[in-house]
């Protein structure tokens, strides 16, 4: 009886793996042109998926991978791809797409906060490295451009 319950739980995990693979396809389809970022994200994604699966196997089956475990996960993935995805794929795509967009917004917000917090320290570091003269560099360039324009207008 315990093996049957494990089979059902691992079939459910296979369905979750199918859903996570669908999320993977939605998220990584947007990273087509960014090779290095794509490869790094790819390695982290599948490392995380392997870690989740091993943790789930430890939780459900005591860490033992038996034939019914593989059959259960394979059956769950097959159920997702053959039955759930064709019926509910557009809903999953919209839901997961919005979820991925939300994660992107959170990432942009976190990046903005770190930029705002770290900018003064970066500015201090640049001043210490290059001296204070670099701060006035843009002002000097603008003054030179204005002077050049004024000379051109005088010559005409």
Describe the structure.
There is one protein chain. This protein is an all-alpha fold and 156 residues long. It has four helices and no strands. Helix 1 (2-29) packs antiparallel against helix 2 and helix 1 packs parallel to helix 3. The chain is elongated, with a radius of gyration of 28 Å. The mean pLDDT is 80.
Helices and strands, with pairings:
Elements: H1 2-29, H2 35-61, H3 67-130, H4 137-155
Helix pairs in contact: 1-2, 1-3
Question: What's the rounded overall pLDDT mean?
Answer: 80
Helix coverage percent: over 70%
Radius of gyration, in Å, reads: 28 Å
Largest sheet descriptor? none
Oligomerization: single chain
Count the strands? 0
Shape: elongated
Q: Ranges with pLDDT <50 over ≥5 residues? A: none
How far apart lie the N and C ends? 98 Å
Q: Number of DSSP helices?
A: 4
Structural class: mainly alpha
* Strand content bin: under 5%
Q: What series of H and E elements makes up the topology?
A: HHHH
List keywords for this structure.
88% helix, elongated, 4 helices, 156 residues, single chain, mainly alpha
Compact description:
Helices cover 88% and strands 0% of the residues.
């Amino acid at each position: 009886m315990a093996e049957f319950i494990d089979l059902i739980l691992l079939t459910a995990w296979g369905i979750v793996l199918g859903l996570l693979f669908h999320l993977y396809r939605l998220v990584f389809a947007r990273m087509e042109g960014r090779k290095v970022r794509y490869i790094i994200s790819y390695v982290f994604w599948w490392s995380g998926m392997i870690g989740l699966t091993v943790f789930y196997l430890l939780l459900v089956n005591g860490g033992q991978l038996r034939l019914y475990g593989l059959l259960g996960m394979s059956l769950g993935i097959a159920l997702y791809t053959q039955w759930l995805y064709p019926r509910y794929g557009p809903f999953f795509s919209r839901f997961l797409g919005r979820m991925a967009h939300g994660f992107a917004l959170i990432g942009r917000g976190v990046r903005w906060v770190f930029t705002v917090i770290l900018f003064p320290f970066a500015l201090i570091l640049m001043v210490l490295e290059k001296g204070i003269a670099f701060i006035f560099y843009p002002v000097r360039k603008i003054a030179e451009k204005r002077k050049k324009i004024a000379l051109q207008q005088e010559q005409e």
